[in-house]
Amino acid sequence: MEIRGPALLPARREDIELHTLDGLTLVGELASPESASPVATLVTLHPLPTAGGFMDSHILRKAAARLPALADLAVLRFNTRGTTSPRGTSDGAFDGGRAEAFDVAAAMDFVRERRLPRPWLVGWSFGTELALKYGRDHDVEGIILLSPPLHRATADDVAAWADEPRSVIALIPEFDDYLRPAEAADRFASVPHATLIPVEGGKHLWVGETQTRRVLTEIVGAVNPEALPLPTMWHSAG
Length: 238
Known about the structure:
By secondary structure, this protein is of the alpha/beta class. The chain is built from six helices and ten strands. The strands form two sheets. Strands 1-2-4-3-7-8-9-10 form an eight-stranded mixed sheet, sandwiched between helices. The chain has a two-stranded antiparallel ribbon with strand order 5-6. Helix 5 links the parallel strand 9 and strand 10. Helix 1 packs across helix 6 and helix 2 crosses helix 3.
């Protein structure tokens, strides 16, 4: 079977709930390797819910569908407050990235309680703002930013990572709607150890299998490079 589009590879998938310090219940899913312990954990933060972003936004859904099997990664997805997906609706209401700090904290509490190894925050668009603003507060190995718009994350939020030993990796689409490679180099200049990866032909929404594979490859390259190259075919047992 060619691995593309909606392909769903074997994994242990569990519907979960996260509980925030301000009393909300958020819905989500944890996907883990089917028969092995994960080597690392992706805590994913979805795009802007008021523009259609949710835990099933396609890159995050495909990460959960493929990477437990292909790269031995656990993938945690959840709807931030007030966000709806087929999994359900999280309590509360969108707060523009402010009270969502509690949502990030609830996800990291879950990671700690489950003893999930080597967590990384993987944000996409709005999710990158949450990773930049709140990721330093938590025990993560690094942050991976997909199409960071740098709308809500201020220059100070970015610069605060300069003294952090943890990884800051940003994938910048060539044709992004908000932040393109040349401007990104300037906006992230305050973080000398940040790794900026310009993606030729890329757009903000990473549409198409070529872009999906590029994004997933860069994520795995950061978190578990021994799993590269990612296969493009899946041969099921039996």
